[in-house]
Design brief:
single chain, alpha+beta, Sulfite Oxidase, Chain A, domain 2, 5-stranded mixed beta sheet, 5-stranded antiparallel beta sheet, binds ligand MTE, binds molybdenum atom
């Protein structure tokens, strides 16, 4: 029995969160820490490689610089093997984004805006930000609908 359980979560050896869990990942991932998922508190997310995307968006005046982790770096961290991401928000909004797109574009899972932490009230704790200003072809309704805020969960399919 123990062997079977161990087999389900063969690499459940990532550090466990000590603070409040703010982001969970599951599905086609190669590592886990709790309940066959990767559950992360904010300090764990901040330890991942930090990237910036500086862009205009439909939601701000002028160019804004966001800091966070690139979705491609997050996928690498969880050893993702799938092709689609189902990203869900605290308000039950969800969207799909292909792994191909996050490999092609610098799509940021932002947790800071101009170096200030995003609050749940202001699109936090995580906001998917596309580099619209660098890649004008991203300025489409499809990408806006994938610009999900209050992100809490990512399932790799
Ligand atoms: N958490 C969350 N993110 C979201 C949404 C939402 O309802 N909740 N709406 C999406 C859609 S469909 C679009 S087009 C854009 C723009 O939303 P807005 O017109 O309300 O600014 O945000 C996206 N991100
Ligand atoms: Mo939309």
């Amino acid at each position: 029995m123990q062997l079977i359980l161990a087999g389900l979560c063969w690499a459940c050896d990532l550090p466990k969160p000590s603070g409040k869990v703010v982001l969970t990942l599951n599905g086609k991932i190669g590592v886990c820490n709790l309940d066959h998922e990767v559950q992360l508190d904010l300090s764990m997310v901040r330890e991942l490689p930090v990237s910036e995307v500086s862009t205009t968006t439909p939601w701000e005046r002028g160019r804004v610089t966001y800091q966070g982790v690139l979705l491609r770096d997050l996928l690498q961290y969880v050893k993702a093997s799938g092709t689609m991401l189902e990203i869900s928000a605290l308000n039950d909004f969800h969207t799909e984004l292909s792994v191909k797109d996050v490999q092609e574009f610098k799509v940021l899972l932002a947790y800071r805006r101009e170096s200030v932490d995003l609050t749940v009230r202001d699109k936090g704790p995580f906001f998917v930000v596309f580099p619209f200003s660098d890649e004008r072809k991203l300025e489409t309704e499809e990408r806006y609908s994938q610009s999900i805020w209050q992100v809490s969960h990512i399932s790799v399919r």
